[in-house]
Write a structure and sequence with these properties.
Helix content is 36%, strand content 23%. The protein is α/β, with parallel strands linked by helices and 419 residues long. Strands 5, 6, 7, 8 and 9 form a five-stranded mixed β-sheet that branches. A five-stranded mixed beta barrel has the order 13-14-15-17-16. It has a four-stranded parallel β-sheet with strand order 1-2-3-4, with helices on both faces. The longest helix has 26 residues. About 7% of the residues have low confidence.
């Protein structure tokens, strides 16, 4: 093989970082390699990553195989010990071109921190920018997490919360707009934890407000996942008043039962989650809401699960991401009484079924309305409220077209541009 292939597992942030990995590898002149960007959220994600590593070696016996990402951060020796692996990179090194300029080692090992690294290179430099199309760009404005949810190993993989200074975010946004991007998505491991480590402790709402003021030519700003217990007053005002902030909010809710939320060590209650959703809709009636939900957390009874299922309707969630619970060694939840795997899978399937039905209902309710669609590729784009839109008329990638929504098919709306 001549080109370098990047295989990605896990969250949106990993997907965005894979684009930075790809650019770093190109800048280093790397070729004939497979880079596996792993995830540590579930045991299944790690199993799939190891499977992909073995498959990559079978398919490309002469390739240099590099493993990175959260699973490799937590257990570097495990991946370095795989005979298929040539090199292991931590989450800092994976974003640096110098990491891929190193010669392959016949003795696989975790890579040490780069010379001069202060441990914050993953949020302080050019790697802040993550983009995957000419239409939409991603700014990683925060990294790491200070919380210790009982099911999660991400704080150990990503480290403590670190935030990008507002001035640097504005500079990056100016460059993106000058390059032709119409929409910027702010991303982070714990986005609503933004600013806690910066002088003056600016919150996410203040940062977003200052960013929009500093870059008036930016047409669309979107937020990634939000903790429902940490939405600040400035952010609520932006949701209500700022038309350039897109009407789509995704919450990290995880469960709908208060005892399960307590055992997860989450920072919100069921009532708070419902009130946050209602407040968002009251302030911005056209908003579309989404959430992450975990199925089959330890000790979850059928009644507890039903409260999570009911939350989809009670919060009016349209975009539901379902995660079957998977025990992570070393986490408190892994020591709790576990549910049988068939029960976990069955509950995850029910959540997904309810989520799909909610999305179909949401899209059906939008038919007949109008929206601005960001064109991502010929014949398809994203509505302001995030739904996928298909259309037949020609439109340039990266342009924004006003469309009337005339129908829906499955998880997609059908749009007709105004002439």
């Amino acid at each position: 093989m001549s080109d370098t292939e990047v295989i990605t597992f896990g969250c949106r942030l990993n997907t965005f970082e894979s684009e930075a990995i790809r650019r770093a590898a190109i800048a280093a002149g790397l070729s004939g390699a497979v880079i596996v960007n792993t995830c540590a959220v579930t045991a299944e994600a790690e199993r799939q990553a190891r499977q992909a590593i073995r498959r990559a070696r079978r398919q490309h016996p002469a390739a240099r195989i590099i493993v990175t990402g959260c699973a490799a951060e937590i257990a570097p020796d495990l991946y370095a010990g795989m005979p298929e692996v040539d090199q292991v990179l931590d989450n800092r090194a994976k974003l640096q071109a110098a990491s891929y300029a190193l010669e392959s080692s016949t003795s696989p090992r975790p890579s040490p921190p780069l010379a001069g690294s202060d441990g914050e290179g993953d949020v302080g430099g050019p790697a802040v920018l993550q983009s995957n199309s000419r239409a939409r760009a991603f700014l990683q404005v925060q990294q790491g997490c200070d919380h210790r949810c009982t099911f999660c190993v991400i704080p150990y993989a990503r480290g403590p919360s670190r935030s990008v200074p507002i001035g640097m975010i504005a500079d990056q946004a100016h460059r993106l707009v000058a390059a032709g991007y119409r929409e910027i998505v702010l991303t982070g491991v714990d986005l609503t934890g933004y600013g806690i480590d910066l002088p003056g402790k600016p919150r996410l709402g203040q940062m977003a407000r200052r960013l929009l003021a500093a870059v008036p030519e930016l047409e669309r700003l979107r937020l990634s996942s939000l903790d429902p217990g940490e939405i600040d007053g400035d952010l609520w005002r932006l949701i209500s008043e700022e038309r350039r902030l897109m009407p789509h909010l995704h919450f990290s809710i995880q469960a709908g039962d208060d005892l399960i939320l307590k055992r997860m060590r989450r920072r919100h209650s069921r009532t708070q989650a419902i009130m946050v959703a209602r407040n968002a809709r009251a302030l911005r009636p056209e908003v579309a809401l989404g959430a992450d939900l975990i199925a089959g957390f330890p000790t979850e009874t059928e009644d507890m699960f039903q409260r999570s299922l009911d939350l989809i309707d009670e919060c009016g969630l349209a975009f539901v991401h379902v995660f079957p619970y998977s025990p992570r060694p070393g986490t408190p939840a892994a020591r709790m009484p576990q549910l049988p795997l068939p029960v976990i899978k069955e509950r995850a399937a029910r959540l997904r079924q309810a989520g799909n039905a909610a999305l179909v209902a949401e899209l059906t309710a939008r038919v007949g309305s109008e929206t601005e669609v960001l064109i991502e590729q010929p014949g398809s784009g994203r509505a302001a409220f995030y739904a996928a839109v298909r259309f037949a008329a020609p439109a340039a990638e990266g342009s924004i077209c006003r469309m009337r929504l005339v129908g829906s098919e499955g998880r997609t709306l059908i749009g007709v541009p105004f002439q």
